[in-house]
């Protein structure tokens, strides 16, 4: 697709704002660390206080990187879904991926009493949560992929994804009905989403999944562009619809599935960011939109995380609530201003 | 005769079109035989539901033929891979592009996809083809407009420009004149005529504008209830083939003017 503008200004501004927000995000929290100290911590001199160095390197930096990976990844998968389903309402979660992850975690936490005793406590480590939610979203992904091989119509896949979502939500409510208050609380805390408490090892795994998903997305960008004309036109230009659909859904699932597994179900970013980006980038070319959406998603997530840690206080708000609180008004404002939501 | 045979680009032999399912085949139209040469403009007419779109879908490889064969350039359609087909045949469909947010230039550029690399960057040749498509359809001034800002007439020209940018020997259009006023209907058909003779492309389109098609096309395929007829428009009129198109009690074909008249 021909690029009529290079969008250098937009990218430069976005990049600058992202760097500033990144530094602010590292600096604020229950303990505020001066920006100068952050620089000296990074350049190897070490912060003037050892606790600062520890907080930065082992808590805030992995958290900020997780936030950027999660925001960028979810936003990219939102863009892919909107183009694949040619529907401005589509997002990574319409495929039922987050419901699948929730189901995995629900079975683990709420069903742990069934296993009981020693085995029960063994199951409830940090890692088992990640594994359960990955397995959950992976199983839903397999089901969705099996369906895409049989069904031609993308709208049908969308509806089937929603149905998978309803079924898993229903199973979760049945499970929670039979579980005790303590387990229920634990499950609900997971569903709030959390960017913190990531080990460097976790960040590395998330990063690997992220780059796999990203590589598949970039690889599909030409096919995504031709899908903008509709399936029949795309086919007439030599596109293999089934293969393309498979790759795009695989990319989304890797991105959304791994992110949900690590940080919990985070609503909204995937749906809202592509629409936000389209306000400043008038092109439909995915090669331009993708980096923009990636930067913008990372930025939004960092801002949400900065707000969520409530600067100068000891509390941290659930990240899932913040993304919706910030994201929903933005989308409503866009709709009122433009009166139309294109994809 | 021999030299003319060589230039046949699109040909069908005993073609049957329709849908197949588990219960068997439901044939919509059968025994379709025609051949269109290089640089010819051919029209396809017939009543609603007679199978015009099904035939076009079969010719473009979007659905399989029930029986008989389609030949492109002397090679059976089923022997083309979808990628090879994209460099032989381009389409203009009745549906609008799925994304209304595409700019005209972006939409026309997409026509170059069969030729660009995996990331879609444009070579000099690609740009030349795009500029030619813009100029031929007089859409250069619209290049930076968005699809949702265009009128139906402009949109149709852009759709034709996209097919032109794909630079294929055959262009197939499904009802390119629907939703257009009389001026744009004539404009689009004249444009197709010009393109066929100037670029030596083979253009085949379905239409309900029978009187305009009779005036402009080189060949016509008439799909009546049980039979299809193919030939030059004037010969089809002489043979009275248009009379069979519609039920006689409502409208009647007047061979002298080449029009349908309402029966009072």
What is the topological layout?
The complex is a heterodimer of chains A (343) and B (264).
Chain A: H1 8-27, H2 35-42, H3 50-84, H4 97-110, H5 112-115, H6 117-123, H7 126-150, H8 154-177, H9 181-192, H10 200-219, H11 221-227, H12 231-236, H13 241-263, H14 269-280, H15 286-308, H16 319-338
Helix pairs in contact in A: 1-15, 3-10, 3-13, 3-14, 3-15, 4-7, 4-8, 4-9, 7-8, 7-13, 10-13, 14-15, 14-16, 15-16
Chain B: H1 2-6, E1 8-21, E2 24-37, E3 41-46, H2 52-59, E4 67-72, E5 75-76, H3 82-86, E6 89-92, H4 104-110, H5 124-136, H6 152-165, E7 170-173, H7 182-199, E8 202-206, H8 210-216, E9 219-223, E10 228-231, H9 233-238, E11 251-254, E12 259-262
Parallel strand pairs in B: 3-8, 3-9, 6-7, 7-8
Antiparallel strand pairs in B: 1-2, 1-4, 4-5, 9-10, 11-12
Q: What share of residues are in beta strands of chain B?
A: 25-35%
Radius of gyration computed on alpha carbons of chain B? 19 Å
Shape of chain B: globular
Strand tally of chain B: 12
How helical, in percent, are the residues of chain A? over 70%
Describe the structure.
- The complex is a heterodimer of chains A (343) and B (264).
- Helix content of chain A is 76%, strand content 0%.
- Chain A has 343 residues and is mostly helical.
- Chain B has a six-stranded mixed β-sheet with strand order 6-7-8-3-9-10, with helices on both faces. In chain B, strands 2-1-4-5 form a four-stranded antiparallel β-sheet. A two-stranded antiparallel sheet of chain B has the order 11-12.
- The longest helix of chain B has 18 residues, at 182-199.
- The mean pLDDT of chain B is 91.
- Chain A binds chain B through residues 1-2, 4, 83, 86, 219, 221-222, 225-233, 235-240, 278, 282-285, 287, 340, 342-343, and chain B through 60, 62, 82-87, 89-91, 93, 95, 97-103, 105-107, 109-111, 113-114, 116, 118-120, 122, 130, 144, 146, 148, 162, 166.
């Amino acid at each position: 697709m021909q690029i009529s503008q290079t969008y250098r200004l937009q990218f430069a501004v976005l990049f600058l704002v992202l760097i500033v927000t990144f530094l602010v995000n590292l600096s604020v929290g229950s303990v505020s660390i001066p920006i100068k100290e952050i620089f000296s911590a990074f350049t190897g001199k070490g912060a003037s206080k050892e606790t600062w160095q520890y907080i930065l390197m082992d808590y805030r930096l992995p958290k900020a990187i997780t936030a950027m990976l999660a925001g960028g990844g979810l936003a990219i998968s939102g863009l892919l879904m909107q183009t694949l389903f040619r529907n401005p309402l589509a997002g990574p979660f319409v495929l039922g991926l987050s419901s699948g992850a929730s189901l995995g975690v629900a079975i683990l936490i709420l069903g742990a009493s069934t296993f009981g005793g020693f085995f029960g406590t063994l199951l409830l480590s940090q890692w088992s949560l990640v594994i359960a939610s990955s397995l959950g979203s992976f199983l839903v992904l397999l089901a969705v992929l099996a369906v895409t091989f049989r069904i031609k119509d993308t709208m049908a896949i969308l509806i089937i994804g929603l149905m998978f979502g309803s079924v898993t939500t229903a199973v979760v409510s049945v499970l929670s009905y039979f579980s005790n208050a303590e387990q229920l609380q634990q499950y609900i805390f997971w569903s709030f989403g959390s960017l913190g408490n990531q080990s460097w090892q976790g960040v590395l795994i998330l990063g690997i999944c992220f780059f796999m998903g990203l590589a598949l997305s970039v690889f599909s960008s030409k096919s995504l562009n031709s899908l903008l004309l509709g399936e029949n036109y795309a086919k007439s230009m030599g596109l293999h619809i089934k293969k393309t659909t498979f790759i795009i859904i695989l990319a989304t699932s890797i991105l959304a599935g791994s992110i949900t597994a690590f940080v919990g179900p985070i609503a909204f970013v995937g749906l809202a960011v592509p629409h936000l980006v389209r306000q400043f980038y008038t092109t439909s070319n995915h090669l331009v939109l993708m980096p923009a959406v990636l930067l913008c998603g990372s930025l939004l997530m960092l801002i949400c995380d900065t707000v969520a840690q409530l600067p100068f206080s000891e509390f941290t708000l659930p990240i899932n609530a913040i993304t919706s609180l910030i994201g929903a008004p933005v989308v409503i404002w866009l709709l009122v201003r433009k009166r139309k939501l294109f994809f | 005769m021999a030299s003319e045979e060589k230039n046949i680009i699109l040909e069908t032999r005993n073609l049957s079109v329709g849908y197949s399912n588990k219960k068997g085949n439901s044939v919509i139209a059968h025994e379709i035989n025609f051949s269109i040469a290089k640089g010819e403009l051919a029209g396809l007419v017939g009543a609603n539901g007679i199978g015009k779109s099904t035939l076009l879908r079969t010719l473009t490889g979007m659905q399989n033929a029930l029986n008989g064969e389609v030949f492109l350039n002397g090679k059976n359609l089923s022997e083309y891979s979808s990628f090879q087909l994209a460099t032989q045949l381009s389409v203009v469909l009745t549906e609008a592009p799925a994304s209304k947010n595409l700019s005209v230039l972006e939409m026309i550029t997409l026509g170059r996809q069969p030729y660009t690399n995996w990331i879609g960057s444009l070579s000099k040749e690609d740009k030349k083809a795009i500029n030619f498509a813009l100029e031929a359809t007089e859409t250069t001034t619209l290049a930076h407009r968005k699809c949702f800002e265009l009128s139906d007439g402009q949109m149709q020209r852009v759709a034709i420009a996209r097919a032109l940018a794909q630079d294929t020997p055959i262009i197939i259009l499904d009802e390119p004149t629907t939703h257009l006023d009389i001026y744009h209907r004539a404009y689009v058909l004249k444009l197709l005529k010009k393109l066929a003779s100037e670029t030596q492309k083979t253009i085949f389109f379905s239409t309900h504008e029978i009187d305009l098609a009779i005036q402009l096309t080189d060949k016509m395929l008439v799909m009546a209830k049980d039979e299809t007829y193919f030939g030059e428009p004037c010969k089809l009129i002489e043979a009275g083939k248009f009379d069979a198109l519609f039920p006689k009690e409502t409208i009647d074909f007047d061979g002298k003017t080449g029009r349908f008249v309402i029966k009072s």
